[in-house]
Amino acid sequence: MRNQRIQGIGMTSQRTRERLIARLKEEGIRDLSVLNAIRETPRHLFVDEALASRAYEDSSLPISHGQTISQPYIVARMTEALLEGGPLQRVLEVGTGSGYQAAVLARLVRHVFTLERIEALLSQAQERFRELGLRNIRTKYRDGGMGMPECAPFDGIMVTAAPEGIPLALVRQLEIGGRMVLPVGDRDMQVLVRVTRTEEGYEKEMLERVVFVPLLGGVA
User: Fold this and answer.
1) CATH 3.40.50.150 corresponds to the domain 66-210
2) Out of 33, 70, 98, 123, which one is annotated catalytic?
3) 76-122 pLDDT per residue, tens
4) Is-catalytic flag, 70?
5) What are phi and psi of 44, to 5 degrees?
6) What are the boundaries of each domain within the chain?
7) What Cα–Cα distance (Å) separates residue 62 from each residue in 10, 98, 176?
8) Alpha carbon of residue 181 to chain centroid
9) pTM above 0.70, yes or no
């Protein structure tokens, strides 16, 4: 039963997942390792059961506590942008949410560290990681804007909610040459940005327009 739940049936079957992969290729995702990680990660386990039949649509879906699971294209695009400069060993994710993005990253990098400020969401994500046997993910209940300085430096950071500017506390937790991908802006205008840490500070590249929930402080 467990294997059938992970493999999926009907609208959560492998055939449905392959249609999503074809769509992502059409939308410009080229990295085969990213496409394979998305193919192998059962997104239907990361959404409410009532929405499982929509899990492989290329759209964001609501999860609990007013949050969303990002559309697969955005997950693929951010992952591809993070890995474009070469393989990574230690990646920090700010905003665990459903756990889907961390699960995709866990198939591509050696160690994933993920922070979530909503305790109930983190508990659900931890259960999903256990079910999938993802043992290279370390979780922490914390205000994500603080990062995880006790485990820094990281060679990659991904932020899955939008601050209004580049968070310098996170930049400082990147090793020199390390990369951070994040949405930046307010509710009216957000841009996906790739930041590279340099000896002098950081460089940034604007990638494309996006829409994310805002990065909030504190814990809940």
Assistant:
1) yes
2) 70
3) 999 999 999 899 999 999 999 999 999 999 999 999 999 999 999 99
4) yes
5) -65, -20
6) 66-210
7) 21, 10, 36
8) 10
9) yes
